Recover the amino acids of this structure.
């Protein structure tokens, strides 16, 4: 079953990273998501507004309580 995986990491060599990803990926090249995140100061947890850059702008308001 397909799932979304989001990894945040510093990359020194993008070409090498892409080669390694292709080794482990299935036949799909994946989907590039163009988005912009805006973080807001809140008393508890995190509040983020995520704007997807497509033909029309779609937004999600996400909260996380760590």
């Amino acid at each position: 079953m397909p799932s979304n995986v989001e990894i945040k990491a510093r990359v020194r060599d993008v070409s090498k990273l892409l080669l390694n990803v292709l080794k482990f990926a299935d036949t799909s090249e994946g989907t590039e998501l163009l988005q912009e995140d805006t973080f807001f100061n809140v008393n508890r947890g995190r509040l983020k507004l995520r704007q997807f850059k497509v033909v029309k702008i779609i937004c999600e308001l996400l909260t996380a309580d760590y």
Observations:
- The CA atoms of residues 35 and 52 lie 4 Å apart.
- The first strand starts at residue 35 and ends at 40.
- Strands lie at 35-40, 46-52, 58-64.
- The two ends are 28 Å apart (CA to CA).
